Amino acid sequence: MFASLSGKVAIVTGGSKGIGKGIAKVFARQGVKIMIAARGEQDAKEAVDDIIAAGGQADYCLCDVSNWQDVQALLSKTLETYGKIDILCANAGIFPQQKMIDMSADDWDKVMSTNLKSTFLTVKACLPHFAKAGQGRVIVTSSITGPVTGYPGWSHYGASKSGQLGFIKTAAMELAPYNTTINAVMPGNIMTEGLADLGEEYLTSMAASIPLKRLGSVEDIGNAALFFATDEASYITGQQMVVDGGQILPESLDAINEMT
Fold first, then answer.
1. Sheet holding 240-243: strands in order across?
2. Using CA atoms, how far apart are residues 68 and 234, in angstroms rounded to an integer?
């Protein structure tokens, strides 16, 4: 049994859909008060409505998490709404598929700003509040793509996700004096709206290459993030957890075939 998280306050960036929405719902079911940071108002409203309909507490703030002023406004609204901040889920990210030969410098910068710069900015904004409270939790949504695997068209995405893991190593030391931990979840292929856009053939082939023979759910990632937020995980910091159904384990498809 884990100690209750009821009454804690969490910011979930990119929490209006996909993995972020899954994280927000999992935390809300444990009594955590949620502030969703998102750019699209309709998706944000729907996510909040879903959480409230299920008995949780949630609000949203329209925010470009790669913009320092927007991030500061996000913290201000969270404090005005709930009075504190206990948990940051730095989840916001984009993954446009584009090979390097067609990629511009602006394309690269957009992904790095949304995925990596935003992680730094949101942690920086929360840090004074964690320091004042004497504790805090940061959970970063990284990926297996970049740190472990590669896929054509995602060099910018992979670099940003590897960068997040590099960031948390030193951030863990800088946050430690404030009794604050930072860890990362590394999802494999998770069924989200964005992944569905890649087509049925892609989804089928990916499921076939995973030892557990299925794509993950957003709740699978939410549950891993939830663990890092608990008191029971208070001695874990600067670490990462792969949540991929065993996807990175086989040497080849032949290894998958040998399972049966």
1. 58-62, 33-38, 9-13, 87-90, 136-141, 180-187, 240-243
2. 29
Give the domain range for residue 127.
9-189+218-247
Residue 25 pLDDT greater than 80, yes or no: yes
pLDDT digits (tens, 9 = 90+) for 242-251: 999 999 999 8
pLDDT tier, 253 (very low <50, low <70, confident <90, very high otherwise): confident
Domain contains 47: yes
157 included as an active-site residue: yes
In a domain, 230, yes or no: yes
Structural domain tally of the chain?
A: 1
The model scores a pTM over 0.90: yes
- Please report, as a single letter, which amino acid is at residue 174: E
**Domain containing 80 — which CATH number?**
3.40.50.720
Among residues 60, 82, 151, 157, the one annotated as catalytic is 157
- Nearest of 78, 77, 62 to residue 10 by alpha carbon: 78
Is the CB of residue 33 less than 8 Å from the CB of residue 65? Answer: no
17 inside domain: yes
Residue 81 CB neighbour total at 10 angstroms: 15
Residue 199 lies in a domain: no
Tens-digit pLDDT profile for residues 128-152: 999 999 999 999 999 999 999 999 9
